[in-house]
Specification:
Structural class: mainly alpha
Organism: Paramecium pentaurelia
InterPro entries: Nuc_sug_transpt
Membrane topology: Multi-pass membrane protein
Main location: membrane
Number of helices: 16
Strand content: under 5%
Pfam families: Nuc_sug_transp
Length: 403
């Protein structure tokens, strides 16, 4: 396999940003859908576990694309070149279960949190993956993180803290004629959701680094690893979703669980009700199918960035889709106030915007675009040892080699 050109990397990054933004928006559209089944009162579509099943289904379909690619001469030639470089061409798929389980945990936590926090905050907080990835890279890949990069991580931490506090300090008003705050209502559910999302970010960091470690050892095509991860996750989640369909929620959690029709019992998941709802609404079915497509595209692009650039570059790029998600979410909220996707209080928007710029500044410091003399500027230029910096430096982008 030859060198990856600047135009190929640019196309890869663009596809990752657009598919990632579309995926977050599509899943939020699912979560805000209300569907009536068999004449019953319309209820919210609240199925984080079944959403994870569809996500892994989308990923697993990539294995079909890989089986087609595997027959082509280019792939066979790539195997020969990889073997010459010391990479193993016989893959132990048991190791792929590690990033798959990280993805499974992270996705579940993220889907649950997306039910209770605005999409923009959801996406900005996911920018904290650069911190967890940096820490994991140090521990497992033995990558040396320089002082200015840790300083950038500190800025990212400050940024996500400001973003996370925006809707708590300035909660949305109950309606246009009510100036009272809903801070007490926002508090518990909001902070629990933020906590779950931050935990998912930690798992994302472990997932990215474990994938990069696999690329260091094995010759893996992006479609191959995404497809195998999907099969692992789908296999586990089918069993889990069925089991949760029969496990009742504690009384204290009934507000977040699903009521079984014609009973007073609540369950963590209702797989049967999930299918009844999506087939009762053509639009919701469309959102589900689109979600499968966008998550598959996003994961293929993300794994490709990890393969051809680095796991850190993947974390950096992931931040870029935030503005698209924020703009669309605000537009939906202003067009349809009943949607309530975003907190439209100007104080919250300003604080969130400040937090976003601090977060972006942290990313720019981390990758060396913003150079800080007091942290030894000379040490900030080390393109041979920092794949993320190679990606962001157009002069060196041609030197990127697939592993």
């Amino acid at each position: 396999m030859g060198e990856k050109s600047s135009s190929f990397i640019t196309l890869l990054i663009t596809a990752m940003i657009l598919s990632g933004a579309a995926n977050t928006i599509v899943y939020k559209l699912q979560n805000t859908s209300k569907v009536s089944v068999d004449g019953w009162t319309a209820t919210n579509f609240n199925h984080p576990f079944m959403q994870a099943v569809t996500m892994f289904l989308g990923e697993s379909l990539c294995i079909l694309l890989f089986l087609n690619i595997k027959k082509k001469p280019d792939y066979k030639q790539g195997c020969i070149e990889a073997a010459a470089k010391g990479l193993k061409t016989k893959v132990n798929y048991g190791w792929v279960a590690i990033p798959a389980m990280c993805d499974l945990t992270a996705s579940t936590l993220a889907y649950i949190s997306l039910n209770y926090i605005p999409p923009s905050i959801y996406q900005m907080l996911r920018g904290g993956a650069i911190i967890s990835t940096a820490i994991m890279s140090t521990c497992f890949l033995k990558r040396h993180i320089k002082r200015y990069q840790w300083f950038g991580c500190f800025f990212v931490l400050v940024g996500i803290t400001l973003v996370g506090m925006s809707s708590f300090l300035f909660p949305p008003k109950k309606d246009n004629n009510d100036d009272s705050d809903t801070k007490s209502e926002v508090g518990a559910a909001y902070f629990i959701s933020v906590g779950l999302l931050l935990l998912s970010v930690v798992m994302n960091g472990l997932q990215f680094v474990s994938e990069e470690k696999l690329f260091d050892v094995y010759y893996l095509h992006p479609f191959e690893i995404v497809g195998i991860e999907g099969l692992w996750g789908f296999s586990v989640y089918v069993v889990l979703a069925i089991a949760l369909t029969f496990i009742q929620c504690p009384t204290s959690m009934e507000g977040s669980c699903i009521q079984k029709r014609m009973t007073d019992m609540f369950y963590f998941e209702r797989a049967d009700f999930y299918f009844l709802q999506i087939f009762a609404s053509g639009l919701l079915l469309f959102w589900v199918i689109l979600g499968i497509f966008t998550i598959a595209t996003f994961n293929i692009c993300g794994v490709s960035v990890t393969k051809y650039v680095s796991s850190l570059a993947r974390s950096l790029v992931d931040v870029s889709r935030t503005l698209i998600i924020w703009a669309v979410s605000l537009a939906i909220t202003w067009i349809d106030p009943e949607a309530k996707w975003e907190n439209t209080r100007w104080e919250a928007i300003v604080l969130e915007l400040i937090g976003f710029f601090v977060l972006v500044t942290g990313n720019l410091i981390y990758n060396g675009t913003i150079k800080l003399k007091f942290l030894d500027e000379g040490s900030q230029v080390d393109p041979l040892n920092d794949a993320a910096q190679q990606f962001l430096d157009s002069k060196n982008i041609q030197s990127l080699q697939p592993q």
